DNA sequence: ATAGTTGCAAACACTTTGCCGTTGT
DNA sequence: ACAACGGCAAAGTGTTTGCAACTAT
């Protein structure tokens, strides 16, 4: 189940697929940013104006528990979701703009496993966010 | 201001020091775990039974904004605080028990800077939590 | 047919805030 | 003295839930 859509993976897991769930699935699948629930609701509402916020919350939670979505928290108190099936990556947050940049670095992945092992643990996941400022423009200094 | 107490750093920054703030400062300084605000409130209440939860919230926020404390979020919806002056470290969370283990690894710190630089950014901070399970006991596999 | 789902509004958990009497400097 | 602070309870967020009507299988 490598390159399947969110909807296909839902079906594969036997989740009952309603119109609302399909809409939420599509909205997330189409997103290339990291929308919070309110934003998913706004995008879903554009497709079906009578979908409710509660349904969006229930749906993302369901999908998350099914391992289809991954919940992210960037420290602003709102949960964000992304397709769990996408290639693993971490996030760099531009603190000047709030922009989120995805990246992968195998070296850092390996290092994390090594650190966990050193502490007597087996790594099952991690959260890594780099907070940074652009290095380009500003005047001197 | 390397090895100073939280209270000393508050004074150095010119914060008005009340009894309540001193209590919160001491409670955090004495903690070797990662208490959430409710827990800080419980510990502070043991010293001064009439301190209010609102004051604890106001105080940790004030201290955080002064750069004296660091706010942590382990994904359970509650903010946790620790002394920002302690040596930098990251956290490994034992998902079977919720226990939090602190660690430092210079290699991973350097790598993060390198990654940020590669993306055109200057690293100003990061959040890293490893989620892991103990590797010892279990039977065969 | 029927167990699961939805929308709505009410309930929640955590955190912030307005008001007013109190306190640090 | 007086701006800043603390306690209280009320208000705010983001998220969850009870319920009656609806829908996928």
UniProtKB/TrEMBL annotation, chains A, B:
Keywords: Cytoplasm, DNA-binding, Iron, Metal-binding, Repressor, Transcription, Transcription regulation, Zinc
Residues given in the record as Fe cation binding sites: 88, 90, 109, 126
Cofactor binding notes: Binds 1 Mn(2+) or Fe(2+) ion per subunit.
GO CC terms of this entry: cytosol
Source domain of life: Bacteria
A UniProt-annotated Pfam family: FUR
GO biological process, one term: negative regulation of DNA-templated transcription
Cofactor(s), names only, from the UniProt record: Mn(2+); Fe(2+)
Subcellular location field: Cytoplasm
UniProt-listed SUPFAM superfamilies: Winged helix' DNA-binding domain (SSF46785)
Subunit structure: Homodimer.
Cross-referenced PANTHER family: FERRIC UPTAKE REGULATION PROTEIN, ZINC UPTAKE REGULATION PROTEIN
Family of the protein in this entry: Belongs to the Fur family.
Protein name, per record: Ferric uptake regulation protein
Organism of this sequence: Neogemmobacter tilapiae
């Amino acid at each position: 189940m490598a390159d399947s859509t969110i909807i296909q993976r839902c079906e594969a897991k036997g989740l009952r697929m309603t119109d609302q769930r399909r809409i939420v699935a599509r909205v997330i699948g189409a997103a290339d940013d990291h929308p919070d629930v309110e934003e998913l609701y706004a995008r879903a509402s554009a497709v079906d104006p009578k979908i409710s916020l509660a349904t969006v919350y229930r749906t993302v939670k369901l999908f998350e528990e099914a391992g289809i979505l991954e919940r992210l928290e960037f420290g602003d108190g709102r949960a964000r979701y992304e397709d769990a099936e996408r290639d693993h990556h971490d996030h760099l947050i531009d603190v000047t703009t709030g922009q989120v940049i995805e990246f992968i670095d195998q070296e850092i992945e390996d290092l994390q496993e090594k650190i966990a092992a050193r502490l007597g643990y087996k790594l099952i996941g991690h959260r890594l966010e780099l907070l940074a400022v652009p290095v380009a423009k500003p005047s001197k200094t």
